[in-house]
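Hi Y.,

Following your request, here is the sequence exactly as I used it, all 431 residues.
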Amino acid sequence: MNIKRKYLFFPDKEGTEETGYKPDAKLRLRIRYNKNTVVNFNVGYRVELSKWVNEAQRCKTGTTHGKKKVSAAEINNEIQRLEVLADNIFKTFEVKGHIPTADEYRNAFNEANGKDIGTSTKGRLCFFEIFDLFTQEVGRQNGWTKATNRKFDAIRLHLHNFNPDLNIGALSENDMQSFVDYMMRTAGLRNTTIAKNVGFVRWFLRWAFSKGFYSGNIHLTWRPRLKGTDGNQKEVIHLTWEELIRLYSLELPDNKQYLARVRDVFCFQCFTSLRYSDVAKLSRSDIKDTHILIVTQKTVDGLKIELNKYSKAILDKYKDIHFPNDKALPVISNAKMNEYLKELGEIAEIKEPQRIVYFKGNQRYEEVYPKYSLLTTHCGRRTFIVIALYLGIPAEVVMRWTGHSDYKAMKPYIKIIDTLKEQEMNKFNEK
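Below is the corresponding structure, written out as tokens. Let me know if you'd prefer a different format.
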């Protein structure tokens, strides 16, 4: 079933031609469907008549309206949101094969738009039901990994622990700030983790807005102020070239031979920039004579990564050994690999002190660890980037290998290279 409909947004002029019209008017939405069925809604803004374009049914770009100087962008965004909301309501009736009466449509529209919030929950989705719809739909569309699903499960739990009665229709900036305070004081999270969680919640709200579940603009206007989240404090744990070669050539004792495969897989990451998820699914069919061709798990990008003598030697070592699903390398679970990497690093004496700085609220913390205790599979990718930049390979080329589309992602690594260059230049002063 397809219900034909037409939307009209218009200023509802106040006054008469004889007495003159007020310079501004309430903005209305009129929906006509099924030939002669009409429903009207208040958009919730006043617009100045001289700044309204009838043909486009939008405010003139760059204008402001009313005493509060509401921007045209805000009003036009609301118009677009209501159009999407109206369409979604019609689609629900189309699926049911039912043409709604004016009252049925009006009630469905108002309920979806958050009207009469708190008076009745019958037939309306709660905050966490909407959140679950988001993770199901977006997770399926983007091919979320188990790790990503776990992240959103954790965020859902934090939101529920913060307030199990969250109401998406009544969500305010104060609610968001209180949620940040909860993560900071009750959950004890670092500012960097809080910032990531807020970013994920804003993603959810953008989706909810596009689906007509949410009518606010917090996802556009609100960002928390958190120290240490601008990227300048980020510690990028990586191996130097000397440490990498030491690990690559490491002779393991007889009772530690179980670490050999972990060492080889990690070094392969260091020589190719592959994430754990990508090296774990690397198959023999992805390997060509001079390069590998993969579609990354995280970004679904197709990448061509040339092989160097080190990465090729690791592949050759295992070319005659059969692994399940025609895998190219003996990759174990990420958690177990992270555990073994710390053991490997300690054997290889990768113990340079690493200073970790982080913030919880306004409080600055500083801790020092031996580098081996901080090694994870993601250090492989970071090692590749740092070494490649240090060798003078242009960032644009490195990004072609890593799949980074945003130059901003390179900033922490370039900062490291600048520090290394400064250290090298100081060697002249020692002569």
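The chain is about 45% helix and 15% strand.

Thanks again,
Q.
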